User: Which sequence fits this backbone?
């Protein structure tokens, strides 16, 4: 019942619902792409390990020149780990899953991608194009850690999600034309 209520509310409320609760200690970042910019508020107060990890990658310039390599319309766009020639970048050690932080995979939130191992997230992330509560933590479901939310540029996310895809390098849902992350930067 609670999930149904949350879903109904997420469809009625703008994406800034979570951001309104954030504090001044939660940084903002801009994902610059060849299709436009996406500004996010990160939630260091709710996902401190995840945000620190993400910002370490941001500050090192790791994301510069990576791509959104997996796009599924009406679901999510995923990036942060591959170059335009579909070579996976070497990452640091995985981090602990913080999906019990009570943040939900609602439209416009950013979460960490991972393997079937809940504690396997490194650099890859995804932005939910729609509300995906099935990705939340629940008993028996380890979930995916939400650590921020789009506050500007959701139209860019929606546009990227319409990109035609193909199978490449053994992976499906790869954009036919590269969606390049030119950089990810902290906002002052």
Assistant:
């Amino acid at each position: 019942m609670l999930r149904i209520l949350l879903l109904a509310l997420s469809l009625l409320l703008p994406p800034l619902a979570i951001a309104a609760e954030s504090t001044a200690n939660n940084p903002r970042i801009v994902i610059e792409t060849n299709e436009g910019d996406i500004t996010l508020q990160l939630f260091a107060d709710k996902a401190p390990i995840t945000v620190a990890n993400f910002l370490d990658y941001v500050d090192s310039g790791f994301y510069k020149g990576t791509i959104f390599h997996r796009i599924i319309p009406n679901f999510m766009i995923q990036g942060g780990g591959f170059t335009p020639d579909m070579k996976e970048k070497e990452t640091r050690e995985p981090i602990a899953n913080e999906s019990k932080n009570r943040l939900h995979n609602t439209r416009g939130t950013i979460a960490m991608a991972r393997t079937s191992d809940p504690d396997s997230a490194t650099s890859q992330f995804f932005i939910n194009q729609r509300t995906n509560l099935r990705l939340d933590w629940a008993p028996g479901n380890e979930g995916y850690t939400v650590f921020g939310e789009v506050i500007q540029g959701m139209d860019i996310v929606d546009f990227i999600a319409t990109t035609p895809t193909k199978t490449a390098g053994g992976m499906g849902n790869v954009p036919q034309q590269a969606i390049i992350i030119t950089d990810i930067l902290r906002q002052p």
